Amino acid sequence: MNKKISLGLVLLISALIVMPASAFPSRTSACEGCHGYPPASIGISTDITSISVNPGQAFTVSLQWSGGSTDGAQTAVKWPSGVLNNAVFTPSPEIPALGTNPSGTTSSTLTAPAAPGTYTVRVYAATGGSLFETDFKDIAVTVTAPPPADTTAPVITILGANPVDVVQNSVYTDAGATATDDVDGPVAVQTTGAVDTAVIGAYTITYTATDAAGNTATAARTVNVVAPPPPPPTEDTTAPVITILGANPVDVVQNSIYTDAGATATDDVDPVVTVNSVSTVDTAVIGTYNVTYTATDAAGNTATAARTVNVVAPPPPPPTEDTTAPVITILGANPVDVVQNSVYTDAGATALDDVDGVVAVNTVSTVDTAVIGTYNVTYSATDAAGNTATAIRTVNVVASPPPPPDEDEEDEEDDEDEEDDEDDKDDEHGKHDKHDKHSKHNKHSGHGERDEE
Questions:
Q1: Separation between Cα atoms, residue 359 and residue 33, nearest integer Å
Q2: What Cα–Cα distance (Å) separates residue 3 from each residue in 7, 9, 34, 443?
Q3: What contacts 357, CB < 8 A, 6 or more positions away?
């Protein structure tokens, strides 16, 4: 390296030393000829890009860098205080130069400022002879103030009257209470206290509700057990009580005869009270009708009651009993022949029922193709009413047919047949020749006899 280059490096290093901590030098090709050129392509990554924290809260960032210089130049990862909002955070520790490692991982703990707001911090990685090659990552930090402490107790609402009177020796049922909290919403209410209705006096029912922050509220109801009221005057002002006999409402089938079950009446003064009834029921017409009952006691107190009578359509007739079995259809040939020792695959069967439609078919086979004989495949099908049908396919296991004749043997037999035909022809020719000679001889003999005559 010549003196000019050496002097240039000294000047660059000096400039880097006095450079403010706000940034590393930018990536440049002006470093040609200096240590580590050409510059490496360093990269840095973080495990988070944004985070929300409370004021003063510490959080840790994992850092990973790669692509640093591999020729012995330094690599550094830092949080320069002059960049973005780095100055208001406390990097702990601020990472110094990491030696000559071209890649690796580390972590840094940052402490958020006390003031709520949105901040951005930036971490740099640099490498090369004079740390010219840089990369950075930004992290958005939102500092939010914690919610104020919950110091407000729930609000209890007592249901029903307060205070409330209850008659001695009656049953007291507390109406209860509800509670709501400005933070937690509905809150459970605990109830304590007891009322003794056998003893006249004032009693307290206490309600307690506590929210998640421990704030407790209480409320109380006063229950006064009082003496029964005095008996009513002797004047009879109470109407009779009518009791309708039988069902109410009641259904009656259209066009049938409706006989009302009637009603009775009792009175607290009169021993016997007559019940009169008025009916609008018309069983010929479907609809809703009333039978009204009226009873009046001797003091002129009148009571009424009504029965509802529904005239309805007759029910549908019951379904006819299913006594018909399904119909089984055997698929394929029946009977069927199968060659001995071959594989028999049954074609199966289907079943159809006049009520249920398609019905499952069960199959039982006795076929043994190893043994010549007649076998059965039995099909059965049962419908939902329990009607069962069966059908049988006959399977005949038969011997294998004889093999076809060999072609060479057929040719030899044909040749032999042709030779036999030739011999037969020769024999026929011989016979004809002898016959001709004999005839000629006879002719010659005959001529001689005629001549002699």
A1: 94
A2: 6, 10, 12, 157
A3: none
CATH code: domain 155-226 is 2.60.40.10
- Check: CB of residue 336 under 8 Å from CB of residue 354: no
pLDDT at 82: 82
Name the amino acid, one letter, at 216. T
Share of the chain above pLDDT 70, in %: 75
Calpha distance 236→278 (Å, rounded): 26
Q: What are the structure tokens assigned to 215, written together?
A: 């704030």
The domain limits of the chain are: 3-143, 155-226, 241-312, 327-398
391 vs 382: CA distance, rounded Å: 12
Give dist(CA 428, CA 434) in Å, integer.
10
Q: Do domains 155-226 and 241-312 have the same CATH topology?
A: yes
Q: Quick one: pLDDT at residue 107?
A: 86
| Burial of 9: CB neighbours in 10 Å, binned 0-12, 13-18, 19+ | middle
- Please provide the size of the chain in residues: 453
Q: Which of 209, 224, 208 is nearest to 162 (CA)?
A: 224
- 């047949």: which residue's tokens? 417
Instruction: Using pLDDT thresholds of 50, 70 and 90, give the confidence band for residue 66.
Output: confident
Distance CA 143, CA 53 (A): 5
360-406 pLDDT tens trace? 999 999 999 999 999 999 999 999 999 999 999 999 999 988 887 76
- Strands of the sheet containing 302-312, edge to edge, are 250-253, 302-312, 287-296, 275-279
Tokens, residue 409: 């043997």
CATH 3.40.50.300 fits 241-312, yes or no: no
The answer for residues whose C-beta is within 8 angstroms of residue 418's C-beta and 6 or more apart is none
> pLDDT by residue (tens digit) across 313-368?
999 988 788 899 999 999 999 999 999 999 999 999 999 999 999 999 999 999 99
Q: Which two tokens stand for residue 132?
A: 């010219």
pTM of the predicted structure, to 2 decimals: 0.32
Distance CA 141, CA 327 (A): 82
Largest CA distance in the chain: 190
Strand partners, 364: 378
**CATH tag, 327-398:** 2.60.40.10
As a CATH number, domain 3-143 is 2.60.40.10
The residue assigned the tokens 């507390």 is 174
